[in-house]
Amino acid sequence: TQVRDVSARAQAISGRLVLLVLRDVTEQERLEQMRRDFVANTSHELKTPVGAVSLLAEAVESAADEPDRVRDFAQRLRAEAERLAGLITRIMSLSQLQSDQPVQMHDVGIDELVDAAVGAQRLPAAAAGVELVRGAHSGAFVRGDAQELGEAIDNLIANAVAYSPAGSHVGIGVKVEHGVVEIAVADQGIGIAEDDQERIFERFYRADQARSRRTGGTGLGLAIVKHAVQRHGGEVRLWSRPGQGSTFTIRLPEAPAPEPNRPGKHRGK
Ligand code: ADP
Protein backbone atom coordinates (compact mmCIF):
# COMPACT_ATOMS: atom_id res chain seq x y z
CA THR A 1 0.00 0.00 0.00
CA GLN A 2 2.89 2.29 0.71
CA VAL A 3 4.15 2.06 -2.88
CA ARG A 4 0.67 2.69 -4.22
CA ASP A 5 0.36 5.62 -1.86
CA VAL A 6 3.58 7.15 -3.08
CA SER A 7 2.73 6.73 -6.75
CA ALA A 8 -0.74 8.16 -6.18
CA ARG A 9 0.82 11.14 -4.49
CA ALA A 10 3.35 11.52 -7.31
CA GLN A 11 0.51 11.48 -9.77
CA ALA A 12 -1.36 14.07 -7.81
CA ILE A 13 1.70 16.27 -7.67
CA SER A 14 2.41 15.96 -11.38
CA GLY A 15 -1.25 16.66 -12.05
CA ARG A 16 -0.93 19.83 -10.06
CA LEU A 17 2.27 20.71 -11.89
CA VAL A 18 0.56 20.36 -15.25
CA LEU A 19 -2.26 22.52 -14.00
CA LEU A 20 0.17 25.12 -12.70
CA VAL A 21 2.07 25.20 -15.98
CA LEU A 22 -1.18 25.49 -17.89
CA ARG A 23 -2.29 28.33 -15.70
CA ASP A 24 1.05 30.02 -16.26
CA VAL A 25 0.69 29.75 -20.03
CA THR A 26 -2.82 31.19 -19.89
CA GLU A 27 -1.55 34.06 -17.73
CA GLN A 28 1.23 34.70 -20.24
CA GLU A 29 -1.24 34.69 -23.11
CA ARG A 30 -3.46 37.10 -21.21
CA LEU A 31 -0.53 39.46 -20.65
CA GLU A 32 0.49 39.15 -24.28
CA GLN A 33 -3.06 39.96 -25.39
CA MET A 34 -3.11 42.93 -23.01
CA ARG A 35 0.10 44.21 -24.55
CA ARG A 36 -1.26 43.81 -28.08
CA ASP A 37 -4.46 45.66 -27.16
CA PHE A 38 -2.42 48.40 -25.54
CA VAL A 39 -0.31 48.96 -28.65
CA ALA A 40 -3.39 48.89 -30.89
CA ASN A 41 -5.39 51.36 -28.74
CA THR A 42 -2.40 53.60 -28.28
CA SER A 43 -1.59 53.81 -31.98
CA HIS A 44 -5.22 54.63 -32.66
CA GLU A 45 -5.26 57.39 -30.01
CA LEU A 46 -2.02 58.88 -31.32
CA LYS A 47 -3.34 59.14 -34.86
CA THR A 48 -5.86 61.90 -34.07
CA PRO A 49 -3.45 64.50 -32.65
CA VAL A 50 -0.80 63.63 -35.23
CA GLY A 51 -3.40 64.14 -37.95
CA ALA A 52 -4.32 67.50 -36.45
CA VAL A 53 -0.67 68.56 -36.35
CA SER A 54 -0.13 67.82 -40.02
CA LEU A 55 -3.38 69.54 -41.04
CA LEU A 56 -2.40 72.63 -39.09
CA ALA A 57 1.08 72.60 -40.62
CA GLU A 58 -0.57 72.54 -44.07
CA ALA A 59 -2.81 75.41 -43.04
CA VAL A 60 0.22 77.45 -41.97
CA GLU A 61 1.81 76.86 -45.36
CA SER A 62 -1.26 77.88 -47.29
CA ALA A 63 -1.75 81.04 -45.21
CA ALA A 64 1.83 82.18 -45.64
CA ASP A 65 0.84 85.68 -46.80
CA GLU A 66 -1.52 86.37 -43.91
CA PRO A 67 0.42 86.87 -40.68
CA ASP A 68 -2.67 86.85 -38.44
CA ARG A 69 -3.84 83.50 -39.70
CA VAL A 70 -0.34 82.09 -39.56
CA ARG A 71 -0.10 83.16 -35.92
CA ASP A 72 -3.46 81.60 -35.11
CA PHE A 73 -2.59 78.29 -36.80
CA ALA A 74 0.85 78.26 -35.18
CA GLN A 75 -0.72 78.69 -31.74
CA ARG A 76 -3.10 75.82 -32.36
CA LEU A 77 -0.22 73.78 -33.71
CA ARG A 78 1.70 74.33 -30.52
CA ALA A 79 -1.33 73.43 -28.34
CA GLU A 80 -1.83 70.23 -30.33
CA ALA A 81 1.87 69.34 -30.08
CA GLU A 82 1.75 69.90 -26.29
CA ARG A 83 -1.29 67.68 -26.02
CA LEU A 84 0.53 65.02 -28.01
CA ALA A 85 3.58 65.28 -25.75
CA GLY A 86 1.32 64.90 -22.69
CA LEU A 87 -0.33 61.86 -24.20
CA ILE A 88 3.02 60.24 -24.91
CA THR A 89 4.23 60.91 -21.35
CA ARG A 90 1.11 59.22 -19.98
CA ILE A 91 1.42 56.26 -22.31
CA MET A 92 4.99 55.81 -21.12
CA SER A 93 3.94 56.03 -17.45
CA LEU A 94 1.23 53.46 -17.94
CA SER A 95 3.41 51.06 -19.88
CA GLN A 96 6.05 51.34 -17.13
CA LEU A 97 3.39 50.60 -14.49
CA GLN A 98 2.13 47.60 -16.44
CA SER A 99 5.59 46.09 -16.88
CA ASP A 100 6.82 43.39 -14.53
CA GLN A 101 9.31 45.77 -12.92
CA PRO A 102 8.98 45.61 -9.14
CA VAL A 103 8.15 48.77 -7.19
CA GLN A 104 11.15 50.64 -5.77
CA MET A 105 10.36 50.53 -2.05
CA HIS A 106 11.15 53.57 0.06
CA ASP A 107 9.60 55.17 3.13
CA VAL A 108 7.19 57.74 1.77
CA GLY A 109 5.63 60.49 3.89
CA ILE A 110 2.09 60.87 2.59
CA ASP A 111 1.58 64.46 3.75
CA GLU A 112 4.55 65.65 1.72
CA LEU A 113 3.28 63.87 -1.39
CA VAL A 114 -0.19 65.32 -1.00
CA ASP A 115 1.21 68.82 -0.39
CA ALA A 116 3.29 68.57 -3.57
CA ALA A 117 0.32 67.39 -5.63
CA VAL A 118 -1.91 70.14 -4.23
CA GLY A 119 0.84 72.68 -4.95
CA ALA A 120 1.15 71.47 -8.54
CA GLN A 121 -2.59 71.89 -9.10
CA ARG A 122 -2.92 75.37 -7.52
CA LEU A 123 -2.51 77.24 -10.82
CA PRO A 124 -4.89 75.11 -12.93
CA ALA A 125 -7.40 75.21 -10.06
CA ALA A 126 -7.17 79.00 -9.81
CA ALA A 127 -7.60 79.27 -13.58
CA ALA A 128 -10.74 77.13 -13.34
CA GLY A 129 -12.07 79.09 -10.35
CA VAL A 130 -11.98 75.97 -8.17
CA GLU A 131 -10.75 76.18 -4.59
CA LEU A 132 -8.48 73.44 -3.24
CA VAL A 133 -9.07 72.74 0.44
CA ARG A 134 -6.33 70.72 2.08
CA GLY A 135 -7.27 68.86 5.28
CA ALA A 136 -5.10 68.27 8.35
CA HIS A 137 -1.77 66.44 8.17
CA SER A 138 -1.70 62.77 9.18
CA GLY A 139 1.97 62.07 9.85
CA ALA A 140 1.42 58.76 8.02
CA PHE A 141 3.97 56.79 6.03
CA VAL A 142 3.65 54.11 3.36
CA ARG A 143 6.25 51.98 1.60
CA GLY A 144 6.69 52.54 -2.10
CA ASP A 145 7.72 54.75 -4.97
CA ALA A 146 7.06 58.44 -4.26
CA GLN A 147 7.01 59.35 -7.95
CA GLU A 148 4.36 56.75 -8.84
CA LEU A 149 2.16 57.54 -5.85
CA GLY A 150 2.60 61.29 -6.34
CA GLU A 151 1.47 61.00 -9.95
CA ALA A 152 -1.61 59.07 -8.86
CA ILE A 153 -2.63 61.72 -6.32
CA ASP A 154 -1.85 64.45 -8.83
CA ASN A 155 -4.10 62.82 -11.45
CA LEU A 156 -7.02 62.61 -9.00
CA ILE A 157 -6.74 66.28 -8.05
CA ALA A 158 -6.33 67.32 -11.71
CA ASN A 159 -9.50 65.39 -12.61
CA ALA A 160 -11.42 66.85 -9.69
CA VAL A 161 -10.54 70.34 -10.95
CA ALA A 162 -11.20 69.50 -14.61
CA TYR A 163 -14.68 68.10 -13.95
CA SER A 164 -15.86 70.78 -11.50
CA PRO A 165 -17.63 74.08 -12.12
CA ALA A 166 -16.13 77.44 -11.17
CA GLY A 167 -16.93 78.43 -7.60
CA SER A 168 -16.84 74.87 -6.26
CA HIS A 169 -14.44 73.27 -3.78
CA VAL A 170 -12.16 70.24 -3.98
CA GLY A 171 -11.27 68.73 -0.62
CA ILE A 172 -8.09 66.72 -0.20
CA GLY A 173 -7.77 64.77 3.04
CA VAL A 174 -5.58 62.06 4.54
CA LYS A 175 -6.53 59.79 7.41
CA VAL A 176 -5.33 56.52 8.89
CA GLU A 177 -7.71 53.82 10.02
CA HIS A 178 -6.91 50.28 11.10
CA GLY A 179 -3.51 50.33 9.44
CA VAL A 180 -4.83 51.74 6.17
CA VAL A 181 -3.82 55.18 4.88
CA GLU A 182 -6.68 56.82 3.03
CA ILE A 183 -6.12 59.74 0.67
CA ALA A 184 -9.47 61.16 -0.39
CA VAL A 185 -10.11 63.71 -3.15
CA ALA A 186 -13.67 64.98 -3.04
CA ASP A 187 -15.21 67.30 -5.61
CA GLN A 188 -18.60 68.94 -6.16
CA GLY A 189 -18.40 68.46 -9.91
CA ILE A 190 -20.38 66.78 -12.66
CA GLY A 191 -20.23 63.32 -11.08
CA ILE A 192 -20.10 59.95 -12.87
CA ALA A 193 -23.05 57.82 -13.99
CA GLU A 194 -23.23 54.47 -12.23
CA ASP A 195 -22.74 52.55 -15.47
CA ASP A 196 -19.46 54.37 -16.07
CA GLN A 197 -18.04 54.06 -12.58
CA GLU A 198 -16.11 50.86 -13.21
CA ARG A 199 -15.24 51.55 -16.81
CA ILE A 200 -13.54 54.91 -16.26
CA PHE A 201 -10.54 53.04 -14.78
CA GLU A 202 -9.97 51.33 -18.14
CA ARG A 203 -7.36 53.02 -20.31
CA PHE A 204 -8.74 55.45 -22.89
CA TYR A 205 -12.28 55.17 -21.51
CA ARG A 206 -13.98 58.55 -21.06
CA ALA A 207 -17.51 59.13 -19.89
CA ASP A 208 -19.64 61.59 -21.81
CA GLN A 209 -17.39 62.27 -24.77
CA ALA A 210 -18.55 65.81 -25.47
CA ARG A 211 -17.82 67.06 -21.98
CA SER A 212 -14.59 65.16 -21.64
CA ARG A 213 -13.23 66.37 -24.93
CA ARG A 214 -13.48 69.98 -23.85
CA THR A 215 -11.12 69.30 -20.98
CA GLY A 216 -8.56 67.86 -23.42
CA GLY A 217 -8.04 64.70 -21.36
CA THR A 218 -6.49 61.46 -22.53
CA GLY A 219 -8.53 58.80 -20.76
CA LEU A 220 -5.32 57.44 -19.22
CA GLY A 221 -5.22 59.26 -15.88
CA LEU A 222 -7.36 56.84 -13.91
CA ALA A 223 -5.75 53.77 -15.48
CA ILE A 224 -2.43 55.16 -14.22
CA VAL A 225 -3.95 55.75 -10.76
CA LYS A 226 -5.35 52.23 -10.58
CA HIS A 227 -2.15 50.49 -11.69
CA ALA A 228 0.11 52.58 -9.46
CA VAL A 229 -2.04 51.94 -6.40
CA GLN A 230 -2.50 48.22 -7.07
CA ARG A 231 1.25 47.80 -7.50
CA HIS A 232 1.56 49.13 -3.95
CA GLY A 233 -0.88 46.60 -2.54
CA GLY A 234 -3.63 49.20 -2.30
CA GLU A 235 -6.98 49.92 -3.90
CA VAL A 236 -8.97 52.85 -5.25
CA ARG A 237 -12.56 53.43 -4.17
CA LEU A 238 -15.06 55.69 -5.81
CA TRP A 239 -18.25 57.29 -4.64
CA SER A 240 -20.10 59.45 -7.13
CA ARG A 241 -23.48 60.78 -8.01
CA PRO A 242 -24.18 62.64 -11.27
CA GLY A 243 -24.66 66.32 -10.60
CA GLN A 244 -23.44 66.05 -7.01
CA GLY A 245 -19.78 65.20 -7.25
CA SER A 246 -17.25 62.43 -6.83
CA THR A 247 -14.91 61.20 -4.13
CA PHE A 248 -11.95 59.06 -5.13
CA THR A 249 -10.12 57.37 -2.27
CA ILE A 250 -6.69 55.78 -2.52
CA ARG A 251 -6.16 53.17 0.22
CA LEU A 252 -2.65 51.98 1.02
CA PRO A 253 -1.19 49.83 3.79
CA GLU A 254 0.32 52.03 6.49
CA ALA A 255 4.05 51.64 7.17
CA PRO A 256 5.88 52.46 10.40
CA ALA A 257 7.60 55.84 10.49
CA PRO A 258 11.20 55.50 9.25
CA GLU A 259 13.97 54.98 11.80
CA PRO A 260 15.33 58.54 12.27
CA ASN A 261 11.90 59.70 13.44
CA ARG A 262 11.66 57.08 16.13
CA PRO A 263 12.33 58.39 19.61
CA GLY A 264 15.35 56.81 21.22
CA LYS A 265 17.13 56.04 17.99
CA HIS A 266 20.09 58.21 18.82
CA ARG A 267 20.20 57.08 22.42
CA GLY A 268 23.80 56.68 23.58
CA LYS A 269 24.96 58.49 20.41
P1 ADP B 1 -9.27 61.99 -18.72
O1 ADP B 1 -7.96 62.35 -19.31
O2 ADP B 1 -10.36 61.88 -19.74
O3 ADP B 1 -9.65 62.81 -17.55
P2 ADP B 1 -9.14 59.78 -16.83
O4 ADP B 1 -8.70 58.38 -17.03
O5 ADP B 1 -8.43 60.58 -15.83
O6 ADP B 1 -9.06 60.46 -18.26
O7 ADP B 1 -10.69 59.77 -16.51
C1 ADP B 1 -11.55 58.97 -17.31
C2 ADP B 1 -12.93 59.57 -17.33
O8 ADP B 1 -13.52 59.50 -16.04
C3 ADP B 1 -12.98 61.05 -17.71
O9 ADP B 1 -12.95 61.26 -19.10
C4 ADP B 1 -14.28 61.48 -17.07
O10 ADP B 1 -15.35 61.12 -17.92
C5 ADP B 1 -14.35 60.62 -15.82
N1 ADP B 1 -13.86 61.30 -14.59
C6 ADP B 1 -12.65 61.15 -14.00
N2 ADP B 1 -12.55 61.88 -12.87
C7 ADP B 1 -13.74 62.52 -12.72
C8 ADP B 1 -14.27 63.42 -11.74
N3 ADP B 1 -13.57 63.83 -10.65
N4 ADP B 1 -15.55 63.85 -11.93
C9 ADP B 1 -16.28 63.46 -13.00
N5 ADP B 1 -15.83 62.61 -13.95
C10 ADP B 1 -14.58 62.14 -13.83
TrEMBL record:
Q: What UniProt keywords apply to this chain's record, in alphabetical order? A: ATP-binding, Kinase, Membrane, Nucleotide-binding, Phosphoprotein, Transferase, Transmembrane, Transmembrane helix, Two-component regulatory system
Q: What class of enzyme is it?
A: transferase
Primary place of residence?
membrane
Protein name per the record: Sensor-like histidine kinase SenX3
List the catalysed reactions.
ATP + protein L-histidine = ADP + protein N-phospho-L-histidine
Q: Which organism is it from?
A: Microbacterium kribbense
Keyword check for Chloroplast, yes or no.
no
Q: Which residue numbers delimit the Histidine kinase domain?
A: 41-256
Give the Gene Ontology MF terms in alphabetical order. Answer: ATP binding
Its Enzyme Commission number? 2.7.13.3
Keyword hit for Hydrolase: no
- Give compartment(s): Cell membrane
Whole protein: which stretch is covered?
115 to 383 of 407
